[in-house]
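Hello,

Our lab assistant flagged a job as stuck in the queue for most of the afternoon. It eventually completed. Since we weren't sure the result was trustworthy after the delay, we are filing this so someone can double-check. Below is the sequence as submitted and the structure that was eventually returned. Let us know if re-running is recommended.
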Amino acid sequence: MFVCLLLQSFTNLIEEKRLRAQLLNENCFVCGLTKTVIEENADFNHHIDTEHSPGHYVYFIWHISKLAHENASLVEKEVSRSLKTHNFDWVPLKRALFVKKKDSAE
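-- returned structure --
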């Protein structure tokens, strides 16, 4: 019985890991747009590595946390205020520049 439970738990963990990897391979972690939508307008790998690199967002948040308020730009001050109130409207959920460019061209 114990071996069955252990095997089932291990199988579930492997499946969860596979699903997470599939989700990251098919969606932008930052904006959440699907690979299909992104590739209609841009290169998916370029988008996730350059335009919406999670590392860039982490660095930006770290940078803001270390920046003196008087040295911050208006954007940095606004994002800092948003972070303090747990407001993440500045994160481009379901948005990307290429989508706006395409919409405004029509």
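-- support follow-up --
The delay was a queue issue, not a problem with the job. The result is valid. The two ends are 63 Å apart (CA to CA). Residues 2-26 form the longest helix (25 residues).
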